[in-house]
């Protein structure tokens, strides 16, 4: 049986390939996300962490979640669905989730 991948053949003809790393599109040095990170590193989260249980499935890092909600409020975003979308698409939110997830776990 002859299998032909028409999709790749169609899109390879005359298509320009773009290869880049997401982190090469760096954030500006004056982005408020850096200020938020510096402020949050000095905060005491022991009360927040005391309310979190280690039983059951592993959840999201509560400090990272707090940082994301705070940054969204700084930008005037209140909708949870919009925040979830930005965590998947906006480089500042992606950076924020990666940094706090790796720092405080």
Brief summary:
With 105 residues, the protein is mainly alpha-helical. The chain is 55% helix and 0% strand.
User: What helical percentage do the residues reach?
Assistant: 55-70%
Structural class call reads mainly alpha
Order of helices and strands: HHHHHH
User: How many structural units, i.e. domains?
Assistant: 1
The fraction of residues in strands falls at under 5%
Describe the overall structure.
- The chain is globular.
- By secondary structure, the protein is an all-alpha fold.
- α4 packs antiparallel against α6 (91-103) and α5 packs across α6 (91-103).
- Helices cover 55% and strands 0% of the residues.
- It comes from Lachnoanaerobaculum gingivalis.
- Pfam families: DUF772 (PF05598).
Using brief descriptors, characterize the structure shown.
55% helix, 105 residues, mainly alpha, globular
Topology diagram in text:
Blueprint: H1 6-12, H2 32-41, H3 46-50, H4 62-74, H5 80-89, H6 91-103
Helix pairs in contact: 4-6, 5-6
């Amino acid at each position: 049986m002859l299998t032909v991948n028409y999709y790749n053949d169609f899109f390879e003809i005359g298509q320009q390939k773009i290869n880049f790393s997401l982190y090469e599109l760096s954030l500006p040095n004056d982005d408020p996300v850096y200020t938020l990170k510096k402020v949050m590193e000095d905060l005491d989260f022991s009360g927040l962490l005391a309310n979190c249980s280690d039983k059951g499935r592993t959840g999201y890092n509560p400090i990272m979640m707090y940082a994301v909600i705070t940054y969204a409020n700084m930008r005037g975003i209140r909708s949870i669905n919009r925040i979830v979308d930005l965590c998947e698409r906006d480089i500042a939110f992606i950076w924020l989730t990666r940094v706090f997830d790796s720092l405080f776990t």
